[in-house]
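Researcher: Quick sanity check before group meeting.
Model: Go ahead. Protein one:
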Amino acid sequence: MTAAETYRTFAGREARGVSPAYERLALAVSRDADLLALIETLPPPKRQPNLLFAVVRLLGGPVEDPTAFHDHVLTNWPAIELGIRARATQTNEAGRCAVLLPVLTALPQPLALLEIGASAGLCLYPDRYAYRYGSHVLGDGEPVLDCALTGTTPPTQVPTVVWRAGLDLNPLDVTDPDDVAWLEALIWPEHAHRRARLRAAAAVVAADPPLLVRGDLLDDLPALAALAPPDATLVVFHSSVLYQVPTARRNAFVELVRELPGHWIATEGPQVLRYDELPEPPGEGFHNVLALDGTPLAWARGHGQALFWFG
């Protein structure tokens, strides 16, 4: 896929109806020969719109006006390129816990959680947040995570978590202002509610930090999984992570995680983890499939705002 196609697809598939600013900006970039020429000099994994837009925002650049964005990127490309090459998209959306909760609460308790691509670890605390599935509310923590749930009944309790750990190539620290600034830059411009949610979840993590290990999902997963307490159910999970992993290593990871004790929860696009039979998604924005131990269960929206159960 060319850079122009990547930005057009992002505008229509990811940003439409979710972020007018990013839809407008991505469409403009897809037609901008100057910017496309710069983007094409980057390695393919670094050409994603979210990464470019977040780096520009982190460095104080404009993303609301495509013309100002064009001028800013051309003027400041060396610093922007350095930021893109040094960073990766590490969106740490606590709202995704609302998608995980129906599966987590159905597993034998207590749980030992191990997240692949944990970023700062905000999704390792599903037991500490509150949830609102329509009129059904459970949990008494902050933030309150809203999720439109269709096709199954809401959970009636939060899970019991006795151990939590994360594996990431570059773990982030919620007590480091620079790391928090990067997490905020990854949140789309109009999403003030997600920025407030990030700050509330970060306060939970800072009060009781998880074990975050710098490492690779193949090379370092077995050793980290071996640290989980044996009297807890090990749950290895990940959300919107494997698209950044080359296909051969992705396939090797699937083989590895299936051999571990416990359970495996994946929330990834169906083009990233393929399944033999899937119903059609219920509408726009349902781009991820929630699966337990390789069996697809539901369509999910990317930030955890909706879950359509079919399993």
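Researcher: Fine. The other one?
Model: Protein two, sequence then structure:
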Amino acid sequence: MTSPSSRPVQAHLLATEFAAVRSQTLALAAPLSEADCQPQSMPDTSPTKWHLAHVTWFFETFILERFEPQFEPFNPAFRVLFNSYYQTVGEQHPRPQRGLITRPDLAEVKAYRADVDRRMVSLLQGSVDTDLAELLTLGLHHEQQHQELLLTDIKHLLAQNPLQPVYSAHWPLCSVTSVPLTWVAFEGGVVDNGHAGEGFAFDNESPRHNVLLQPYALSNRLVTHGEWVEFMQSGGYQDPRWWMSAGWEWVQSQRIAAPLYWLADGAGGWTTFTLHGRAPVDPHTPVCHVNWFEADAYARWRAVRDQLPIRLPTEAEWEHAAQSPGADWHIPGNFQDNRALHPLPLTRHQAGQLQQMGGDVWEWTASSYLPYPGYRAWAGAVGEYNGKFMVNQMVLRGGSCATPRSHIRTSYRNFFPTDARWQFSGVRLARDA
């Protein structure tokens, strides 16, 4: 693996980062019982136990197997059981059947983690070359991705339980005043897009390249639950005018009438399931758990309602705006580190400033997930990490309340199919200037 994002090798810093990331994953799993860690609620999710094992498999397979003297696997069967999609490594257990892997049990998976951690720490006490450092850094960011997936997947699982179990008893919301939706304009022109080359980045963020942007504007904040209720009350889920053909087919076939996890409360209002239990929908919080079909339909409805050329932003517009002096990207956002694990409302109005650009919810864009001009996948098995998924996906930007802060940057490209909504995904509007 070679990457333009390589950095000087400092073994002690890598060892510190390794310990911190690995400890955080276990901390996220700590509130769960062994029974919680076993099931798989749908094919797109994975059991917590599988996440704990798979990220360990990554370090064992791509680092220890290559760099550890006299390497021996912890358990040869794990090479297949916990391989996700790396064809060049070998066979994989079918993804929809991960919840059927009752053995190894959770204790053995934790023993697997402890064994690999011990061997990784020993490895980092020796000479660390650039290839090892790059693979280790990739492995840490890979584990941070799975930290977010662990949270979104366990939320989906717990939501299937009629007892509405609580993952975290802490409830983060407070009373706030409404912040009006306004527009922040940008002149456009030829701008730079993509990773600038400092620090780690995935291969899909490169190479940096020029993009021509027409004048545009972004909404100062995210679309809220209250605004989404207006869309619903106006018949948004019943009117085919707002929907792409495939989206309308999805609405009809799945009988969709509200965002994921919403239930009518019987008194004309709505509740939603959160990692803190079921709670009333707060009108000021960013709407989340909507898919691209829903986000696009809302933008089309809003364009007609407001008589403005409203749409979803392109990913190039989003990145350009996020890097502007008027964005709040430099302000610590509502990421996983904040421990809210739920989108938060704004507590103040910053006139002329883009707010909520980092954290809270991943923001759907109008851009298909495609390679940048001149893109080249990394060499070796890790080259399968991103490139082979560049079809039938849409790009999201910004991170969410389940994303680790140190994992995200303005050039980060997340991607999901148009019907996916179990992630913390929401909406920021754009318009032609």
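Researcher: One line on it for the slide.
Model: The longest helix spans residues 130-159.
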